[in-house]
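Quick start: read one record
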Amino acid sequence: MPATTTVRTVCDPNCHANPRCGILAHVEGGRIVRIEAADFPRPEFDKRICLMGFSRLEYQYHRDRLRFPLRRAGARGAGRWERIGWDAALDLIAESFRRIAVADGPRAVALVTGSGANGVLTRGVTYRFAALIGGTAARAGGVDYGVPKGLEYTFGVRASTYFGPGGHEFADAVNSRTIVFWGGNDAETRFVDFPFVREAQRRGAKVICIDPNRTATVSKADLWISLRPGTDGALALSLLHEIVARGLQQEAFLRAHTNAPFLVREDTRQFLRERDVYGGDSTAYMVWDAASAGPRPAAAGRAASLGGRYPVRLANGGTVRCAPAFQLLRELAAEYPPGRAAGITGVPAESIRALATDLATQRPTAIRIGYGVDRWYWSDYTARAVAALVIATGNVGVPGGGISVHSGTYPVPASMMAFRNPDGKSAVTLDMIGLMSAIESGRPYPVKALWLSASNMFNQTAANRGRVLSSIVPRLEFIVVSEHFMTASAELADVVLPAATIFERLDLIPGIFLQLQQPAVAPEGESRSEFAMFAALAERMGFGEHFRRPPEAYLEEALAGQDPLLEGMTLERLRREGAVTLNRPAEPYVAFRDYRFQTPSGKIELYKEELVPHGAELPAYREPIEASPFSPLARRFPLTLLFSHSKHRIHSTFANMPMIKAIEPEPVLEIHPGDAAARGIANDDLVRVYNDRGTVTLRCRVNAGLRPRVLVLPEGHWVKDFRDGDPYSLTHDLVSPTSENYAFYDTLVEVEKAGG
């Protein structure tokens, strides 16, 4: 019998688990024979692994895994390939990149690493290469960006990083008395972290789930609030109205840490400044000081008013009426008393009143806001309205409170990002929406070549897939895809490169712990890590010196920064221990404990004067742009199509694993019994879902846990898993100017029995 060795590595997909799950790979004769969950320095994180993690062994040795470079041998997308060597593949890529850079400028070469990998090297190498050639790299935005953008407006943490320093770690749930899951099914999609919530319940916390449909999280919750999809903003404003009308707001907190008392001019809707009143150059914000019955600079006001309207004499001799920002927010919320909000949302008025009481009195209150809220046209407005609930009740900066997008943690140390910026150079970046525009219209500049790593962009990531395939992809002159399988995106490539897996590459995964992703076995076939691919390509393009050091050297460099979090970290220690706790306090991370906010005012901003041109200075409720019963389209397409997250996949990753297929062999659409009966549809029928943009045929399941007029389909199924068409072509690509986010859920459709 060959000797067995055990290697610790880490699973690192886009599951938002913190920490990512450690895996022990047991190796015999150069082959992994068994995997199991690894331990951590803190026992509460031991044995974390989900079904997707267990499927990694099938993933590693899957019969369909790509093992050799391929070049397109027929028309793009026709499925004809020829095997080529690495030298031929890299020569072709280098020549194509040079040609396009000469013709259209180096920014015309775009390199994208998606959310399928999160290592310092694997995720950072496309940024490094793009910086060196003067090309374009991908940045966060366009997908899952609406809620973080709204929270950026409010708290000042950049939307692309709000998932870290803006939220609370999941372990902080044990400090909460009220926990609200708003638009997220964390019991399934954050399965490995959810035990902290169950522990909070055992300690007496009340768990509330706000979701249109009955989910696994609803089954674990103490209270379920079911609302019409897309009306979350109206519910949030109604809750705020109840809190304020009953005097449950924390006024000392609002005065000290928010721009609630700042005076807003009625004529311009801009903040009143000291120079407006006294002349000079001071841009200090003004408040109405109740003690002196007049306007004063915010720093000097002894008793700043939060309500009322006041005439203010200006330095130019005129008079303008002003009101504190909180007065304006109060008036907005007053438009949504529980009775009216009930008619909009479908939530009973008495439920709204009871929920407002819980939020304001059963403190600390934590809200964890999910992508069920994010993927709507007005999602940034909704996020700001929901955030106002924890702000008004003083639940910011305290253990057990806050508003988190899933969770949060300490920001990644700067030295761990430095690999992306060789010699101080940085790549220009575009988000998903900007990238699609650059390819299609040449704005802000043309993009003609695209490299994709750890991304299945052309499966479900870009909205209105049918238009993407017909109008955008054909404008790309050259596509390279680094992948493990022949995905929908790889099928459109000119060159496909076989990528190394988590068991075949060296990398560093940040989080609560630093974890070393280290090779357990040699790469299958001719697979290579992304670092090795770009190192070889850089040699051909004249800057190979920036990749000639071994990967270990770059990781040592990343650990050698001055950030206190990294004190005592070395690569040798990580090899020895596998996972090492950051040099940080033992208690869970809590955002904004110092009450410092990187906003224009340095305060939490409930009112945004820079959004006045958009009419978005306050988080007003607006009906969904499409998925509304008041939409003109609703007569023909009366059903809202929601895409849930599956507990068996991370988007399209793992969708082709045998053990996953055994549980979920095909896509299944869920439909309410009343909607099914009205259309002559029975359980397990084949149905056709359609609108003016596309159509898809699949099997259906009748589910009484859905709201009427709502369909639910787990996203991430590969396009080829559908019998006809695909659901990702049903979505529209309308984008709000303030959120820059695809509104995948803001979609209307109709359904009929297949063949009907």
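The CA atoms of residues 98 and 210 lie 52 Å apart.
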